[in-house]
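Lecture 7, part 2: worked example. A protein chain together with flavin-adenine dinucleotide.
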Amino acid sequence: MDKKQDTYTNNQTPILIIGGGIAGLTAAVEAAETGYRVILIEKQPYLGGRVAQLNRYFPKMCPPYCGLEINFRRIRTNPRITVYISTTVTNISGEPGNFSVTLLTEPQYINNKCTSCGECVKVCPVERPDEFNQGMTTTRTAYLPHELAYPFRYVIDHQKCKGVSCGLCLDACDYQAINLSATETKKVVKAGTIILTTGWKPYDPMNLQDLGYGKSPDIITGMMMERLGAPNGPTHGQILRLSDNEIPKKIAFIQCAGSRDENNLPYCSGVCCSATLKQAMHYVEQNPEGEATIFYIDLRVTGRNEDFLSKIIDHPRINLIKSKVATVQMSSDKHTINLDYEDILSGLKQKSAFDMVILATGIIPENIDPIKISADDFGFAKSEHLPDGFYSAGCLNKPADVASSIKESTGITLKALRTAGFKP
Ligand SMILES: Cc1cc2nc3c(=O)[nH]c(=O)nc-3n(C[C@H](O)[C@H](O)[C@H](O)COP(=O)(O)OP(=O)(O)OC[C@H]3O[C@@H](n4cnc5c(N)ncnc54)[C@H](O)[C@@H]3O)c2cc1C
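Predicted complex, written out as structure tokens:
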């Protein structure tokens, strides 16, 4: 728990926000800056959600960390906000104005005495997949979630750590910041109203083996491409094909990979077209000889992304082909990826070869078990049908970009404050 909160004396019932992505951060700062106490729950050991993993924002191509940093500063300096990381909610009882919420925090093997010196990592012998880099790299069991993480503190993956039988990190830490016997903690907090902002996760690409996923390390998802392009990603921002670390000369982007497809996700994930335009532009800007081809069913972009689309259409090294890709096959050299597709505008069946393929996989809502909420057939929250005292915002409600998630979260927070009848 954030220490500054221990001394907070106001006995007003707080507003509880579950999910510390951009929607949850927005709700937290909006409510706290209006004068209310806030408890923010995040299951990861860092705040920021999926946005922290993005390379750049469409349509301005700016780094998402600018906006996140502003929110982190507002959270850090606001005594009304208590943050619980590595924490989930296991039970909610009571009624609006007086909910009792049980929080479960994972064992904190590294405590507040951590100075982030990193000595524990140097001696840790066990590796784990790095989910922040979409599994493309590993970290040690003692690790920093990422180099811009907030809070900026090392953590130990208690599920992978060998515990005191190894204990090398205990000797390496000069600050007594490590306790390998720490256990999970439960705590019950009171809340007046609850805002759900648990966001989204990528559709499982293993369902897309017909589009080549799993056949080659060079057939990756849109979120993996975000990490490949990011300066703090696995290749330090240089887009390389993972099979041999060569710079790809030709990249294919396959839109609606599993989306708008009865066998996978029947709906449109809304942001993938803009995300791909952004990634294609980033790639050709980085590689003066690189060529990007986008295979799309429809290009769905809104607002300022329309101007961005015009730039893409005019770009001499970005091709847009209206088509549904039929097959994705590896050639015998194990690097060239062959695509068969029908060019819908000409009606011709075509073949093309690429060095890398990016599948624009869709967005699915994060499950917030054990909290039961009204959801549509795909698991997105039906915000207008939630129980009294509950609100939801961001990608838990529907696939959305950051600007829409922030707008919705601000509106929902005002509603939540008004309905619960808080007095600032
Ligand atoms: C490939 C790709 C690229 C994109 N690029 C852009 C872009 O350039 N510009 C743009 O505007 N949008 C972009 N988006 C969309 C953007 O990612 C979303 O708008 C944004 O992540 C929505 O924020 P959120 O807070 O609703 O959800 P999330 O970012 O998913 O945050 C939810 C948070 O809740 C936490 N959480 C989940 N379950 C629990 C639980 N049970 N208990 C506690 N915490 C929990 C999660 O760990 C996470 O931190 C992109 C999307 C994709 C797929």
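Helices lie at 22-33, 65-76, 119-123, 168-172, 222-229, 272-286, 305-314, 402-420. Residues 18-24, 41-44, 49-51, 54, 57-58, 88, 197-200, 222-223, 226, 271, 275, 278, 363, 366, 368, 394-395, 400-403, 405 surround flavin-adenine dinucleotide (CB under 6 Å). Keep this in mind for problem set question 3.
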